[in-house]
């Protein structure tokens, strides 16, 4: 058939195509090369990621789990530090987006033979990856890796700097459960000094119009946290009735050179979530934890497992569930940005 007689496709874009076009319009030209921190994302960009995650979650509920956003794109996961939730959900997200995906265990790589990080990344770069997802114990390591590769680097948690996709899935969960973040009060409890989760959440919630209070022993609250937008409180019982969501952080024994409080038992007495504190919360409040949990330290098992009824709701496994959709959104946006 001659070209001029071929029927033109005059159909309007499908709902999904239209959604992606609108997202691209919002994002294009502004998306940083790498997804390293919430600090450098705008409210508009964060909302765009959450909107796309919502789209993926709704599609999954309708049985559409697999997508082709990253078809033909190569994704390398490199986890220099242990992980259960983040690593698994990035792998699942990459597979659901049809990426060609590899996971490198650094201890089984040539790093163990003395190869430098720079040489390792430049050799991986030679294979032409489109995305690298990196977790590292050193703050700033994913940023350094990003300088050695043209691939978009996604920070899966670096030292005590940031854990951007954790904060995005936390914000997604609060929005899903409470309807919005604007005006909502997030209370973050515990080991703020060593927590990349706290830093990313402070930036995310403040940018989205929420307010954040950090609570813990003074020895675990770093100076300058107010400059990031959070308030500071040392008395958990005073602040609990005013919280819309309370996030308990893990005591990170691996990042503390010495204990910053007299004993674990004393920490739990003053900052652990128990039945009495649960009763002091608003009935619609959310109880969150990024995991992994030290059961009986930050949170009593009956609350961690959501066994108490008629009051504040534990959403720890909702956070994990939402991690897949949120990481799909991040991989899709950064993977298609080149
Ligand atoms: N929340 C979190 O980062 O958990 P993992 O260390 O298991 O990935």
Distance between the termini: 36 Å
- The chain-level mean pLDDT equals 91
Tally of distinct domains: 2
Any idea what the radius of gyration is?
21 Å
Describe the largest sheet: 6 strands, parallel
Strand neighbour order, sheet with most strands: 7-6-5-8-9-10
Share of helical residues: 25-40%
* Low-confidence segments: 1-14
SSE order: HHEHEHEHEHEHEEHEHHEHEH
Describe this protein with a few key phrases.
Rossmann fold, 4-stranded parallel β-sheet, 14% strand, 6-stranded parallel β-sheet, binds phosphoric acid mono(formamide)ester, 2 domains, 338 residues, 38% helix, alpha/beta
General description of the model:
There is one protein chain. By secondary structure, the protein is of the alpha/beta class. It folds into two domains: 15-163 and 323-335, Aspartate/ornithine carbamoyltransferase (Rossmann fold), CATH 3.40.50; 165-320, Rossmann fold, CATH 3.40.50.1370. Helix content is 38%, strand content 14%. The chain contains twelve helices and ten strands. The strands form two sheets. Strands 7-6-5-8-9-10 form a six-stranded parallel beta sheet. Strands 2-1-3-4 form a four-stranded parallel beta sheet. The longest helix has 20 residues, at 316-335. The radius of gyration is 21 Å and the shape is globular. It binds phosphoric acid mono(formamide)ester.
């Amino acid at each position: 058939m001659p070209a001029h007689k071929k029927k033109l496709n005059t159909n309007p874009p499908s709902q999904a195509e239209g959604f992606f076009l609108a997202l691209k319009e919002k994002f294009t030209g502004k998306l940083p090369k790498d997804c390293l921190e919430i600090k450098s994302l705008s409210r508009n960009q964060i909302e765009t990621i959450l909107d796309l995650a919502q789209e993926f979650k709704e599609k999954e509920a309708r049985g559409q789990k697999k997508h082709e956003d990253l078809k033909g794109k190569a994704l390398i996961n490199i986890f220099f530090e242990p992980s259960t939730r983040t690593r698994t959900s990035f792998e699942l997200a990459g597979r659901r987006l049809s990426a060609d995906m590899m996971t490198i265990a650094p201890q089984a790589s040539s790093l163990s033979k003395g190869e430098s990080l720079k040489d390792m990344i430049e050799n991986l770069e030679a294979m032409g990856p489109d995305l690298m997802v990196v977790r590292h114990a050193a703050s700033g390591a994913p940023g350094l890796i990003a300088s050695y590769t043209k691939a978009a680097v996604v920070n899966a948690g670096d030292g005590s700097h940031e854990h951007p996709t954790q904060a995005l899935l936390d914000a997604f969960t609060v929005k899903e459960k409470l309807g919005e973040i604007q005006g909502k009060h997030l209370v973050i409890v515990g080991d703020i000094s060593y927590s990349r989760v706290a830093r990313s959440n402070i930036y995310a919630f403040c940018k989205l119009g929420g307010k954040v209070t950090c609570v813990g022993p003074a020895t675990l609250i770093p100076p300058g946290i107010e400059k990031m937008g959070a308030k500071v409180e040392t008395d958990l019982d005073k602040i609990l009735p005013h919280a819309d969501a309370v996030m308990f952080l893990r005591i990170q024994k691996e990042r503390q050179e010495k204990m910053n409080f007299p004993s674990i038992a004393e920490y739990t007495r003053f900052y652990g979530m128990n039945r009495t504190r649960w009763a002091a919360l608003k009935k619609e409040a959310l109880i969150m934890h990024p995991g992994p949990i030290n059961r009986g330290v930050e949170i009593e098992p009956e609350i961690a497992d959501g066994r108490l009824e008629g009051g504040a709701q534990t959403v720890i496994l909702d956070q994990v569930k939402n991690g897949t959709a949120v990481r799909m959104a991040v991989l899709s946006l950064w993977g298609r940005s080149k």
